[in-house]
Design goal:
It is built from four helices and five strands; from the N terminus they run αααβββββα. By secondary structure, the chain is α+β, with helices and mostly antiparallel strands.
C-alpha cells in the first residue's frame, strides 16, 4: 500500500516538474525580435550572453589540427629513423621507439632508440632522444646500457635540421596559396 502511494506521489511530482520546466522563460516566435538568418541569431545570442561554447570557445588554435603528417618534428623523426624497425609510434603519446637493430657486422651488439616529444615547436629542448645498446655474449646473457651522449645529440641535431626544412617548405606552400588567393580577388 505504501509503495503505491509513493509511486503515485513520485509520478505526480515528475509530471509537475516536467510541465513547469517547459514554461519557464520560453519566448514566443516573434520574427520582429529575432533575425531570420541563423548566423545573425547566433551572433545576437552571444552578444546578449545567452550563447555558450564547447571546449573553451574562442581559442587561439581553433581550426588548427595537430595531425602526425603536419607536425614537422614527428615527420623528421620518422624520416631519420626510417632504416630501423619501429616497435612503437604513438603520436598522441608523443613517443617513437624502435625495435632492437643490429647491422650484419656486429651480430652480438644491437641498438634501440627512443624519441620522446615534449613540444611541437622546433627547439632543441622539444625532444629527448635516448640510445640503448645491448651486448650479448655467446651464452645469450645480455647487458643493456644507456649511451645517450654522443649519438643522441647527433640524432637530435639531424631531426631538428630536417624539421626546420619541413617547416620552411610548409610555410612557402602556405605563402604561395595566400598570394594566389590575393591575385584572384
Amino acid at each position: 500500500m505504501i509503495s503505491r502511494i509513493f509511486k503515485y506521489i513520485t509520478c505526480k511530482v515528475i509530471i509537475f516538474l516536467l510541465i513547469s520546466s517547459c514554461t519557464n522563460g520560453f519566448e514566443g516566435g516573434d520574427a520582429r525580435k529575432r533575425p531570420p538568418q541563423v548566423k545573425d541569431r547566433i551572433k545576437k545570442n552571444i552578444e546578449e550572453g545567452r550563447g555558450f561554447r564547447l571546449m573553451g570557445g574562442n581559442q587561439k588554435n581553433v581550426g588548427e589540427f595537430d595531425f602526425a603528417s603536419s607536425n614537422e618534428l614527428w615527420r623528421a623523426s620518422l624520416d631519420t629513423l626510417d632504416f630501423m624497425p619501429l616497435a612503437l609510434a604513438n603520436y598522441s603519446g608523443g613517443i617513437v621507439v624502435t625495435d632492437w637493430y643490429s647491422d650484419s657486422e656486429t651480430s652480438n651488439e644491437s641498438v634501440k632508440i627512443s624519441v620522446r616529444f615534449l613540444s611541437n615547436e622546433i627547439r632543441s629542448d622539444a625532444l629527448i632522444v635516448k640510445v640503448f645498446y645491448k651486448n650479448c655474449s655467446v651464452q645469450q646473457t645480455c647487458k643493456i646500457t644507456d649511451r645517450s651522449s654522443a649519438l643522441s645529440s647527433e640524432l637530435t641535431e639531424k631531426i631538428l635540421a630536417k624539421a626546420a626544412v619541413y617547416e620552411k617548405e610548409n610555410q612557402s606552400k602556405n605563402k604561395k596559396k595566400y598570394i594566389n588567393k590575393a591575385l584572384e580577388d
